[in-house]
Design a protein that fits this description.
By secondary structure, the chain is an alpha/beta fold. The chain is 51% helix and 17% strand. The protein has one domain: Aldolase class I (TIM Barrel, Alpha-Beta Barrel), CATH 3.20.20.70. Helix 1 (10-18) runs parallel beside helix 3, helix 4 (63-74) crosses helix 5 and helix 8 packs parallel to helix 9 (169-178). The protein is globular. It starts with a strand and ends in a 5-residue tail after the last helix. The structure holds erythose-4-phosphate. It is an enzyme of class 2 (transferase).
């Protein structure tokens, strides 16, 4: 499973890219708004910092306007993936933008049927939102499992499953086990994947024992 980082924080992206743990970046209007900076500048900087795809989302809700915004976002850099919502106009825009050779990420997906429409519309990525379904007391990961099963059954389903709205390390593990192609993960959750108290405890006791020997490796 590939990892994207779900943030518009350029310092975090640079650090995680240098560590070699991320294959791409996803942003959304809320994440861009948090930076307080113009979207073009933020997306350009992110695209310069990482080779992989960088999702930038349209804010229009009507088809014609989505196309204009999608083209504008895609003109920022070659690795921009245009994000459109899982709405009727979004699926139409996905089809039109994909036919123009752009990568489209269909976002705000909450059902397998929306994923089917996205794949039919030529989406490069479908983003089922796990955490937001969990917030309602539902099993968000079930949608990822359903989309995986559909994709496995259907050779014409050429859309990568991008597990989104990932909130915990458990979500990351479950997404991988459900067969997601990619998980987009907030920086804090990504760092938490490395943590285990037994690792810290074991390291402390190894170092204490080593200190008693007085040896140095180099
Ligand atoms: C995905 O592309 C979205 O930006 C993101 O995963 C949304 O996550 P949230 O539900 O935690 O806001």
């Amino acid at each position: 499973m590939k990892f994207f980082v779900d943030t518009a924080d350029i310092a975090e992206i640079r650090e995680l890219a240098a560590a070699g743990v991320i294959d791409g970046v996803t942003t959304n209007p809320s994440l861009i708004a948090k930076t307080g900076r113009p979207i073009r500048d933020v997306i350009k900087e992110i695209c310069d910092a990482i080779e992989g795809p960088v999702s930038a989302e349209v804010t229009a809700i009507e088809f014609d306007r989505m196309l204009v915004e999608g083209e504008r976002l895609a003109s920022i850099a070659a690795n921009v993936a245009v994000k459109v919502p899982s709405t009727w106009d979004g699926f139409r825009a996905c089809r039109a933008l994909s036919e123009r050779g752009l990568k489209v990420n269909v976002t705000l997906c909450f059902s397998a049927n929306q994923a089917l429409l996205a794949a039919k519309a030529g989406a490069a990525y479908i983003s089922p939102f796990v955490g937001r379904l969990d917030d309602l007391g539902l099993d968000g990961m079930e949608v990822v499992r359903e989309i995986r099963a559909i994709s496995n059954n259907d050779p014409s389903f050429n859309t990568e499953i991008l597990a989104s709205s990932i909130r915990t390390p458990l979500h990351v593990k479950q997404a991988a086990m459900a067969g997601a192609d990619i998980a987009t993960v907030p920086p804090g959750v990504l760092r938490n994947l490395a943590k285990h108290p037994l690792t810290d405890k074991g390291l402390a006791s190894f170092l204490a024992d080593w200190g008693k020997t007085g040896q140095e490796i180099v």
